[in-house]
Amino acid sequence: MRNIFYFCLLAFLSINIATQAQTKARPKVGGPCEGCNLLFSGIPKAMNSIDTSAGWEEKGTSKILIKGIVYQQDGKTPAPNVVVYYYHTDTKGHYTPNASVPKRAERHGYLRGWVKSDQNGQYAIYTIRPASYPGTDFLAHIHVTIKEPKLKEPYYIDEFLFDDDPFMTPERRKGHQNRGGNGILNLVKNGNGLWVAKHDIVLGLNIPNYPK
Questions:
Q1: Rounded to an integer, what distance in angstroms lies between the CA atom of residue 158 and that of residue 181?
Q2: Of the four, 33, 47, 69, 114, which is 20 to 30 A from 123 by CA?
Q3: pLDDT tens digits, residue range 41-71?
Q4: pTM for this predicted structure
């Protein structure tokens, strides 16, 4: 009886060790992503496909709308219920926190938000145009992180950049990984004076270790 007990215990330990080794060996989808898990910090319980950032009502800002469709890996089939998290600098180029931002997410500033693609894969973000980091020639940008229903962890895609950025050069136009698609936005002013850019996202596109 004792031999059977030890045999079962040894078998259990062997399976457990093998499972842990397999888990450790499994590469992370998207590769290293510093700060991606801050997507969960302050995430609202209910999300829809449209979000308006906290800076929308601020005076003296350039208001922009970024909208598009989230597609599955084939680039054709709309992907519903995908969380798109964004954050960016203010008009002075700072990630300024405020009381609404959880302590651990303060480095992302108060200009942050979430949308969840609707049944047609559509999403829309109303926000203000960010500024470059002060005293630098960094391109102004919006960080974007994706959380798919089928994946345990989020991954980042190409930052949203601006085609008319004064610091945009031919070299910088080419130097992108096109994760989820090329992130360079072409803003066009509509009849209401709002700058609008259409940007579709393709899940898994150029994302390392993305499941087949």
A1: 7
A2: 33
A3: 999 999 999 999 999 999 999 999 999 999 9
A4: 0.87
